[in-house]
Design a protein that fits this description.
Shape of chain A: elongated
Structural class of chain A: alpha/beta
Radius of gyration of chain A: 22 Å
CATH superfamily of the largest domain in chain A: Cobalamin-binding domain
Distance between the termini of chain A: 35 Å
Oligomer: homodimer
Largest interface: A-B, 59 and 57 residues
Largest sheet of chain A: 5 strands, parallel
Helix content of chain A: 55-70%
Strand order of the largest sheet of chain A: 4-3-5-6-7
CATH topology of the largest domain in chain A: Rossmann fold
Order of helices and strands of chain A: HHEEHHHHHHEHEHEHEHHEH
Number of helices of chain A: 14
DNA sequence: GGCTATTGTATATCATTCGTATAATTTCAA
DNA sequence: TTGAAATTATACGAATGATATACAATAGCC
């Protein structure tokens, strides 16, 4: 597909970036930002480079830089790509791991997990072994005595394992930064860690905040960390105010796309959409692809 | 690599630091703290260096220094830190790590930590870099907006790092199994992780349960995991009932020695002894040696 | 107790910033 | 040819910022 000399009219640029034509012209007139080619009759003609430029401008204003100072403060940014997955002799492994957890036997637990990793890609193991195992354990843990200890034990193990892979296994990529945190009240980090792993494998750069992060902390962190997106993980039903008050407030408060993953994203898809956020679902692979697509495509302005 | 030359207006600085614009202007007018650039029309323009500066100011006022004397305090502290003369590589590393945490820059964070590990032994790095850094961050985090996010970020990073060392770095030993958990209500795992690391290095086999574990779960876990000792970490003051009701109950409920580590072990040594447990203190090395000695000796039943 | 210095906050007034609106004219495409 | 859309220019207004002055709470001091 040859896209050699793209000549985008201002209307297209506007819909691609979410910035109104009026504003685009005002920026050009007042600050000399973006200077398009002109037709002989004076109509503006933009290219994809201008789209990229506007994105960078939006990233800066989102961090609190006034538009009048953006020109003096322009620097760098870059995009990325992604990856797929799928197969099955997994139930035996799940049984062994579940039994190991019941005995608090880290050695056996690690042995099975590493053996699986030796044969299959990490995304596969996550998808076919860890996630189903977590579901099974979740069911087993309902109100059982010793459940909390088991859960903590496995959580600690998995955090160490996945954390190690995150910090060491993935060569530091150059893709978009994604702030990843659990919703307020959400204490289960599994989903978030698995997402971070998948995201890192797909050349995103997750910034992990972990469990139970208040919403206003997220806004502050996004500013400081200059992230290009926010992902909130929520599996147990969030507090009533979260979907209808805090989430819209988060979307308004930062100008990067906000994604919500986990079971909540399925149970409350409508409310998430109404808040201006994007519901991801429970498949981390799909989630990462959706984020990629969304970041590559026009950034629709909310308000 | 440095942040782009951002020009932040006063409202952004305010939201980043939690200090009202009024107060920021008053500080500038009255004490000459923070002197921002100005636009041609006189509007103030700040950079991230100013954000850092305000953070240091807040750290001082938070410790009780009157704002009127902060300037003098800063100026007297300045020469001490920025003229290291090669004497102490640790404060420089601490500064870099603290700044990286403020930017949520995991790459830089990891870089400094790994560089330190390349030169010094891990216990040394823990003792001279991580522990002082944690103390410093604890002071900085008093009530600051964004503090929770920063703390979660660093906690997640450190858990991954130390967890990785625990899982990979240490060949599975054959020594005694030690159940390691934080006391109920204790959410800081750092101390516990450091202990587990040291314990593994000393040929113990820690079974890590992590933060905030209820006491009766500990009893159940000890049975199932067949551990030879229990270590409870507690740094913030535990709930009133813990020392006098739950801890004795734990000691009675399982027939292995129970150790308590962290600041609580120092502040409430008598109560811990009365409960039939053993107070360890805050030095993980000493703690591990004490446990070894105790396990080697015939198991004297207390009380 | 009364006095005073310190310090965060409030108000009044004016200027600046920046998105949006309007108007008059021109260009494009069906 | 005709209506939608672009152009320039000017203007409006809400939010924000600057300065100066004032006020209130607190702490130290005689």
């Amino acid at each position: 597909m040859p896209a050699p000399a793209e000549r985008l009219p201002i209307r297209t640029l506007s819909s691609l970036t979410g910035v109104s034509p009026l504003t685009l012209r005002a920026w050009e007139r007042r600050y000399g930002l973006i200077q398009p080619l002109r037709t002989p009759k004076g109509h503006r003609l933009y290219t994809h480079q201008h789209v990229e430029l506007i994105r960078r401008v939006l990233a800066l204003t989102g961090r609190g830089v006034p538009i009048g100072q953006v020109r003096a403060a322009l620097e760098s940014a870059e995009p990325a790509t992604d990856a797929p997955g799928g197969a099955d002799p997994w139930t035996g492994r799940m049984d062994r791991m579940a039994a190991a957890i019941a005995r608090f036997d880290e050695r056996e637990l690690d042995h099975v997990y590493e053996a699986a990793l030796a044969v299959h890609a990490v995304e596969h193991v996550t998808q076919r072994l860890l996630l189903p195992l977590l579901e099974r354990l979740g069911a087993r843990w309902q109100g059982l005595p010793g459940a909390i200890a088991e859960e903590h034990f496995f959580a600690t193990y998995l955090r160490s394992k996945l954390g190690a892979r995150l910090v060491h296994g993935v060569p530091h990529a150059e893709g978009a930064r994604v702030l990843a945190a659990c919703a307020p009240g959400e204490h289960h980090e599994f989903g978030l860690l698995l997402f971070a792993l998948e995201a890192a494998a797909a050349r995103l750069r997750p910034v992990l905040l972990g469990a139970d992060v208040p919403v206003d902390e997220l806004v502050a962190a996004q500013r400081r960390a200059t992230c290009d997106a926010i992902v909130v993980s929520s599996s147990v039903d969030p507090a009533p105010g979260f979907l209808h008050r805090e989430l819209p407030q988060l979307v308004r408060g930062c100008c990067v796309p906000v994604f919500v993953g986990g079971a909540t994203a399925i149970r409350h898809r409508a409310a998430i959409g109404a808040a201006g956020a994007v519901a991801l679902g429970t498949d981390v692979g799909d989630g990462v692809r959706l984020i990629h697509a969304r970041l590559a495509r026009p950034q629709t302005r909310k308000r």
